[in-house]
Design goal:
Layout: H1 13-26, H2 30-64, H3 76-91
Helix pairs in contact: 1-2
Length: about 90
């Protein structure tokens, strides 16, 4: 892919020196190192986002099983903790 975009930013001298040393060690230009590093970062973020989406879907599905499972009454807000504990104890009784 032809590179047509230019991006510049400020680095502290230590970071710049470390990047230049790494590029020399690998025998590539600093631009190639930065391009590869940016691509890897984006791929990792996309992969993690997919994993997060799947985890959120799993959590929502598990929570959906409990929605509306406890009948509310006039004293519901005062006794909700006890009702939830009793329901969980009943569900997970061994």
């Amino acid at each position: 892919m032809a590179k047509t975009e230019i991006y510049s930013w400020r680095l502290d001298p230590e970071t710049k020196m470390g990047l230049e040393e790494e590029a020399r060690r690998e025998g590539i230009s600093l631009a190639q190192l930065m391009d590869r590093t940016a691509r890897q970062l984006l791929e990792d973020r996309r992969r993690n986002r997919k994993d997060d989406d799947q985890e959120q879907a799993r959590i929502h599905a598990a929570a959906a099983k409990s929605i509306g499972a406890i009948a509310a009454g006039p004293d519901f807000s005062q006794n909700v903790s006890a009702k939830v504990r009793a329901r969980l104890k009943q569900r997970h009784a061994r």
